[in-house]
Amino acid sequence: MSKKGGSKAKKAIVTVLIVLVALVAIVFIGARIYFRTPVSDYYKASEKAFAIPGLMSNLVPQGLDYLEDEDLYLVGGYQKDGSPSRIYKVDGKTGKSLGYVCMGDESGKGIAPHAGGLAAYGKFVYVAGDEDAFVYVYRLEDVLNSEKGEVILSLGKFYTTYGDGGIRADFMCFAEDRFFVGEFYKDPTYPTPDSHVFEWESGDENHALMLCYKLGEGDGTNFGIETKPSAAFSIPGLVQGVAIEDGKIWLSQSYATQTSTICCYNLFDTTSGKNISLASGGSLNVYALDSSTFVSSFDAPPMAEEIVFVDDKILIMSESASNKYFFGNLTGGRWCYATDVDELT
Hints:
- With 345 residues, the chain is mainly β.
- Helix content is 13%, strand content 42%.
């Protein structure tokens, strides 16, 4: 090839590269505008708390909790490649990942549940199972002190059952000496039993339930939680996380790439004559989380998962920047943000 021909080829290659870079830049800028503009107020009211761990190692983040005594965040989730689900530790001061442990069953075999929710209380860490009505229970000491990547043994399961049925454990939290655990509903892909459907005087119809258990020790308890629920909540669909703060109950709602919603309701504000039956006899009052108890809401980026309040700010876990979905890498989704809700509600 002549020098002139080689020069033309080089120019063509450079031109192609410039066009490709320009296209990537356009996609990046377009994605940021598309996903961030509708929630610009959220970003204005937020600051980066920590980088979500495990994203480059196939973690699809789900659960989030904060250990005040240790000043640590716990982040749980499943692996895109189907390997055992993980629990990561994040330093509350530096925001740096301190490693992870893998979930195991009672025999020590690694397990890979969806792990949609995570909460710690006392000596235990509780992690949502999969499609069944239970949560896995682990020693907090094992989560904190085991070697990186070690499979930790489950102590057993806490069953989220009542009467002749139960609820899937999809999200959870501990607050006000109670354990709250609820199920996710979306028609038609994530149905719930007809017995979980309640229509309220407000005209709202909810298809999912959240159970509330008192904490305790001795007979009638399991892993520090009473086995009989003390209350039930009729909740809307698409709920991914719950948190209690200042007598209010907060729910995160999301699905796919649509904008997430964080809703606030009055806790134990109203009751009704509706109830659910208990296996031990009697019934349980059902509280409505609907327009009659609604307080406020704000929009958040897509794929919001579990939520937790720390120092009066709400932190929202997100799965958008995982290798499974990726687009969050273009929109700031690699970070867990601390948000001042007073600026948004």
